[in-house]
Design a protein that fits this description.
With 326 residues, this protein is an alpha/beta fold. It is built from 15 helices and eight strands. A hairpin with a 4-residue loop joins strand 6 and strand 7 (193-195).
């Protein structure tokens, strides 16, 4: 696959990170030869680990956490970049303070993944919990994260904080255009089936063994999903006070949005974070000056980034923001 990428894509795309190889794994088992490939070709790994016993178990019901920690240390030793993906659900929400301490100790990027009730095909035994409890846990994590200097980089807390800053600065971003940008993730099954996710009623676009990608993207199934997302954004985002500062991308990023017909995380988390910052007196004159400098840096970096993987590094704004909020 890597050899094919070098044959198909311009070398500068690969050098600049426009073409990347990312894998998600529970990292329970990994062989040295796999680590060799990852290190040689710059693979990035997302490690699904909840640091809570009893749910992610072996076939025989055994614990997996210690084995995963051991393999994460192997990644660090080999210099293989990785981030941590932690589900927020019934098994993790009650342990959120311990989980923060664990992920903070690894000093790796973190993605918090709220798991809401969804289709009947989604197994929820032992992990189901109310949305309000998940949001409360995210606020607990946020407060700990702020006290720790906004480290490690955490999604969606980083993006939420940036949205709040833009709102307080009365700055707006263009609305995300799915028809222009395409999908962040498309799933190709072993039989060639192309889809956007496993649970979506209209999520299957076609088969790459039978139809070209161009025909699929131009076809009615893909167009339906774009139109469906546009309708959902119009319905959910229209009256949101963060619209403009938020570019509506949370609707697209959260795979539960189309299930619950809502923006299940940011719509509720953003006002909670803003109220917390207001209560702690962060929005003073010093904040406004710092935010203005931060925003100028962010915009400049965004233009200079061109086709870089991210529009601007969070490090360009995290340090000055912490000075203001300290």
């Amino acid at each position: 696959m890597v050899e094919l990428q070098h044959e198909v894509f311009p070398s500068e795309w690969i050098a600049r990170g426009r073409v990347r190889n990312c894998l998600q794994s529970n990292l329970f088992k990994i062989r040295d030869e796999h680590l060799d490939v990852f290190a040689k070709h710059g693979f990035e790994l997302g490690i699904s680990v909840d640091f809570s016993p009893g749910v992610r178990v072996t076939v025989g019901g055994g614990a997996t956490e210690d084995a995963v920690r051991k393999n994460m240390r192997r990644l660090l030793e080999r210099g293989v970049p990785f981030g941590i993906i932690t589900v927020l659900a019934g098994h993790t929400v009650p342990r959120i303070e311990r989980i923060f301490a664990e992920v903070a100790g690894w000093k790796r990027p973190v993605r918090l993944l709220p798991l809401f009730g969804g289709p009947s095909a989604r197994p929820m035994q032992g992990v189901a919990i109310q949305q309000s409890a998940i949001l409360a846990a995210m606020m607990t994590f946020f407060k700990l994260w702020m006290d720790a200097g906004m480290e490690p980089r955490t999604d969606p807390l980083d993006s939420c904080l940036r949205t709040i800053v833009l709102k307080r600065m009365n700055l707006k971003r263009p609305t995300q255009d799915r028809a222009l940008l395409g999908n962040d993730v498309l799933v190709i099954d072993r039989d060639g089936t192309l889809s956007c996710d496993a649970y979506r009623e209209h999520g299957v676009f076609g088969n790459l063994l039978q139809t070209s990608i161009t025909e699929i993207i131009d076809g009615p199934a893909y167009r339906y999903v774009i139109d469906e997302e546009t309708r959902l954004k119009s319905s959910v985002c229209g009256a949101c006070s963060f619209r403009g500062a938020c570019d509506t991308s949370p609707i697209a990023r959260n795979f539960d949005s189309h299930v619950v017909q809502d923006c299940p995380t940011e719509k509720y988390l953003l006002p909670m974070i803003e109220a917390h910052l207001e209560e702690r007196g962060f929005f003073d004159d010093e904040f406004a000056a710092t935010a203005r400098r931060m925003t100028e840096t962010f915009v400049t970096d965004s233009y200079e980034a061109d086709f870089a993987p991210t529009s601007a590094s969070p490090e360009t704004w995290r340090a000055p923001m912490m000075q203001s909020m300290g």
